[in-house]
Each structure stands twice: as structure tokens, then as C-alpha cells.
Amino acid sequence: MNWKILIATFVVLAVILSGCTEPASDDTEVEKGEVVIGSKLFQESYILAHMAGIMLEEAGYEVDVKEGLGGTFVNYEGLKQGSIDVYVEYTGTAYSQILEEPALEVWDPEVVYQKAEEGLKEDGVLVVSNLGFEDAYALAVKKQWAEENNVVAISDLENHASDLIIGTDPEFALREDGLPRISSLYGFEFKEVKPTVATLMYEAIKLDEVDVISAYTTDTRNELFDLTILEDDMNALPPYDAIVVMSAEFAEANPDAVTALEKLNGQIDTETMRGLNYQFDVDKREAEDIARDFLIETGLIESELAEE
């Protein structure tokens, strides 16, 4: 009889051990869960959203990238309401538009970053990574026109603005740190304002449908379309350092996600971002492929081939 008792004991122990180990794996899967990443309406935001997504996939999360979700407030409200967990913002936008801080007499990138970080934290949003580059707003005109009219700075547009059509992205025409501030500070109005998505804005100046655009300083189409970026000689526009933001609630529940995205800190300089945008605009590569290749090249993730 002893051997029967012994076998029964082993069976019970096996069941107990099985019950202890298998659910632990399932719990880990549940704990990681899904991360939803938003993006704005231009190529750079697509690329960076996928970059964050791939880093989180590597950390074991299931990722859903909402490419081209919307503008600043669509993404920010999504973050606050929990429909997205992460997106890439810019310090000047956070400072002036989200937090509605007053314009500084002299724009200092460090002050803007600090104020943005502090203000967002108070609003339940954390800056988890400072990517290392600035993508600023700027006014741009065709180089030939600029040379013919001796225009090198925004103030030089004063005698021409009433005859010029400006194309802008959907936000720049209305937001306080955009065209309204330029009009107020420089004291002139354009003949007409045509807001549209970034791709169509650049195509419009290429085809002479507009004369000026609200360009992005990391956009390679500035060079491709032979545009001149005008000096902001009255310091109207704030600095726009790229930052990864995450809801504080999600961050607290997912420290591994924070750790994964912290690895992107300082990894992208301005020239690198221009190169990544070039791959999207000129080489017509997919944003996710561009992001993955960059992460492999920088050693932040391993190549799938290397893993095989």
C-alpha cells in the first residue's frame, strides 16, 4: 500500500507544481498587455511612432500604432482619456498650446523644456524620453524668389506679404505660437492663408500655388524643392524639441514600457531625422521599415536575421 500512497503523493505534487508555474507565464502576458501609440499628421511623426512601437514590442508589449491619428489636441486628449498611451510631442507645442504658458521675451530651449516637463507632469503626463533633435516651425519661400527680392528674414516680407499666399499645416494658421504670433509681432498680414496637410502644403509651393509655407526644419523637402528658410529675426517662434510622452497612469502600471522608451533618449540628431524623413518622402519607404532599420543600425534592437 505504501507504493500507492507514494504515487498519489507524486501526482498531487505534480498538479500543484503545474498550477504554480503555468499561470505565472499567462499573468506575465496579461500584465504586459497592449500599448496604443498615436501620431500626428506628417511623416516624421509616423516614423517616430513606429520607432516607439518597435521598442515596446521588443519589451514584450502588443502594440497598435495609430498612424496619422490627428493634430496636437487629438493626441493629447487621447492620452488624457486613455484611448492612446504614448505619442511624440514637441516642447514648444506643449509649452504654448497645451499648457498655455506665455511667450518668453527670449526663447530658451532649456527653460521651455523644463516648464513643459513640469507642467505636463502636473497634468498627469510624463516626458519619458528627449529624442535629441528639434523640429521647429519656420517660414520658407522659394530660393530664387528670395534672392530676387533680397529676402533673408521674416521681417523682409513686410513689403511683400499683402501680395503673398501662405500655405500652412492645419494647426499653424490658428495656434497662438504660429501665424497669429508672427502677424502680431511682425505687423503684417498675408493676402490669403491656405491651411492643409503637410504633404499638400509642400506640393503647393512646389507648384507655385502658394508663395510661402510654414515649413518644418527637419523636412528634406526644403532642400528638394529649393526653398529658403527665413530667419526668425524677431524671435517669434519657440523651440520645438521632440519628446516622447506617456500618461502617468500607464507609466505607473507599466514600468517596463518606460524603461524601453528611455533607451531612445538622445538617439536622434537633426541630420539623422532629416535622413529618415528623406527615406519616407523620396525613397517612398514605409515608416515602420525606416524605424526598424534605424533601431537595428544603432544597436537598440537586434536584426531579425541575426536572431535566426
UniProtKB/TrEMBL annotation:
Tell me where in this chain the ABC-type glycine betaine transport system substrate-binding domain is found: 34-296
What PROSITE patterns does the entry give?
A: PROKAR_LIPOPROTEIN
GO molecular function, a single term? transmembrane transporter activity
Q: Superkingdom of this entry's organism?
A: Archaea
InterPro entries registered for this protein in UniProt:
ABC_Gly_betaine_transp_sub-bd (IPR007210), PBP2_ProX-like (IPR041894)
Provide the Gene Ontology terms for cellular component.
ATP-binding cassette (ABC) transporter complex
Record Pfam families: OpuAC
Record protein name field = ABC ProU-like glycine betaine transporter, substrate-binding subunit
Q: Which species is listed as the source?
A: Methanococcoides burtonii (strain DSM 6242 / NBRC 107633 / OCM 468 / ACE-M)
